[in-house]
Here is the input.
Amino acid sequence: MQIEKVYEPQRFEPHWAQWWIDSGVFTASAEAPGRVFSLVIPPPNVTGVLHIGHMLEHTEIDVTVRWHRMLGDNTLWLPGTDHAGIATQMVVQRKLAEEGISRHSLGREKFEARVWEWKAQSGDTIKRQMVRLGASCDWNRERFTLDPGLSRAVREVFVRLYEKGLIYRGEYMVNWCPQCHTAISDLEVSHVDVAGHLWHIRYPVNGLPGRYVTVATTRPETMLGDTAVAVNAKDQRYFDLHGRTVQLPLMDREIPIILDDLADPEFGSGAVKVTPAHDLNDFEAGRRHNLPKIQVIGEDAKMTAAAGAYAGLDRFEARRRVLIDLEQSGALVKVEDYPLSLGKCARCGTPVEPLISTQWFVKTKPLAEKAIAVVENGQIAFVPPNWTKTYYEWMYNIRDWCISRQLWWGHRIPAWYCGECKEVIVAREAPATCSRCGSGQLTQDTDVLDTWFSSGLWPFSTLGWPDQTVDLAKYYPTSLLITGFDILFFWVARMVMLGLEFMGEVPFRQVYIHGLVRDAEKQKMSKTKGNVVDPLVVTEKYGTDAVRMALLQGAAPGTDIVLTEERMESSGAFANKIWNAARFLFMNTEPASTFHQALATGHRPPATAIEDRWIFSRLNAVAEQANRAIDQYRYHEFAQLLWHFFWHEFCDWYIELKKVSGTAWSNATAAFETALRLLHPAMPFLTEELWQRLGNAAPKSIALAAYPQFNPALADPEAEKEIGILQEVVTLARTLRTEAKLDPKQQLAGTLYCRTASLAIAQRHAQAIQKIARVTLAFRSETAPKTGAIRSTSEFDLVLDVPESKEDPARKQKELEQLEKNIANIERQLSDEVFLGKAPAKIVESLRAKLAEYRAQRDKLL
Ligand SMILES: [Zn+2]
Ligand SMILES: [Zn+2]
Here is the structure.
């Protein structure tokens, strides 16, 4: 059988990627037998391209999904993308801006058409990339959050929540981004610590000349909109002012002094200004006292007409002018430095303006209660479990969710307003006339829904809900969600709340939260740092399998993943190592398909050669550990296990042993085939290519072959012990040879001393030891002399006859000096009490061992 000398992943990967899809390998069937394993993808934004974080997420998902498929489960990985309201709209707006067009000049319909157009040409990018990276999704079931079916689900949910009183329209303080020109949710505000100021302003009390109330503020421009000053009813300093008013400086407006707990006697002067239109706490105080709301800052962040002389100024310019005027009038009494947490729009970085507006809200408390209960009673488990606490904290402090966005791209709110009688009609389809007065003058709400509203329905809307489809019955609840911690609240919590409300069942049983991919210095990847790894570039360079393997090796639960070029490169070398092993096998043997059956069904293969018995026993142990590792999301362990098995046990030992023993190669092929199946979830392309070359006919793909399971009958402790002894002796010989700095090819003689039965076992392998270690051994059942080149383990002493080498005195001197230096270094460290107090025991122990080693080497040279 012919096989190319070097593995070139680029030659094979695109082929198998397409072949898997064309052959329906990943197509799920609700009618198929087996336990159900289903998972929905965290839908990437349709505008985007895949970054390395996606690749990590998709690789982890893919390993678990492929494993379940090979276990014979009825497996579905449902793919799709999110319309990503604000993100997408901004991208298209920027493109239009380059052409000198604004969305307002274009108009809503034409703008939406442009977004769809743009989605059509760029929307397939994600899918193409995912296919190329080997994600084993069922593309027949691909969904998009704006699909007609999903849009129908969105309207249905909106109407039902509205009818239940869980959606309402109300005036409320929202976070307003003047740049994006929309309300944004609390979660979309990022807080930045800045060095601010606290300005103290005094307001004269009416009717008491010379009496003032001093308030402090970090935002002096908002004082233009003050409608009260609050003091605490218990604050004795203000007993004389109860029922009085103050005169608002600059505006010359009379405002009342109110009694409210908003004012804390312990803080500052104990009096606070109340601006109901520009601060959430003041807004609530205003409600309690029925205060007017004077909006002095507009949606464009400019001062409104209500700001009098300051109208039309930008808010920051207004602040400057207000401070100058306050100072000139003598009302500014003090300025202090004051650190504050500034709320900025997470998308564009503009400082957020709290504004009152009429928005749609979801009443979340009743939904959150159930969502807390299912985690408490174990119906949903977070892995790692520490995320449970984070989830609770948020759920217990949840506020109503503002779901309307002043955007054009998204699901339009299914509410219509009657021009005649002002009736609000919420309906699944556009009504023709007003349900109250019969007027045809209806206009639909112009806002769209928060993008997380539709993705919150993702686990059931993608399966056909509100129709009771076969898929929905079969695959909901899904088994697992794998996602990042950054969308735990945006997305995961909302899916739990909405899934419980509409399906009466949790949306998934387990949530695995993965880490971040970091660079070699453990830094976060970012465009500004220039350390971003583009998955398409590195997969082109090293092969997809190699990048997957590199990611998996670092993917321990609860940790971030360090991805380096070296790791990807060595993973590429690992793929090549397996390829070369295959090459060697193919040159020596014809595929022995009978053994596949034997292994798959758990029967002991007819192996009598000791090395065959050993490799089957090792494979069996690896199978046990690999299944457990994937089941527990210990992807790093899974990857390391297979790495060690292929590289060391299979290539370094087993193939070498077989060369020596000269026994038939058919068992080697069988073992190799089993190992390929074990590795398949991590490196799907290489394993498919080799598995097909082995001539496997059924099933059609390794992705559908059985995942090897532990079988007690295959455990062979006797063989493991015997090969273990052989490895021990060879390793001893190699160490001695390295120490003596001898040519690795030079044949040597030596004597093995051993007082136990192990000697006979070692002796049985004299030939293998001679060929692999290049040492011809004599075997002695006696105690070893304590001289010469000797190395020992608990059972063996190996003495090597080292030929007299011509000494180079200069080199010897240099070596001695180096050793003395090393010894002095470690001695200093070990006498340092501070170091000893802090260093882990393991480190100290290894230093002591090194010291002993260096001393021994020195004594030998002396
Ligand atoms: Zn913004
Ligand atoms: Zn009407």
Remarks:
- The chain is about 45% helix and 20% strand.
- Residues 674 and 741 are 39 Å apart (CA to CA).
- The longest strand covers residues 189-204.
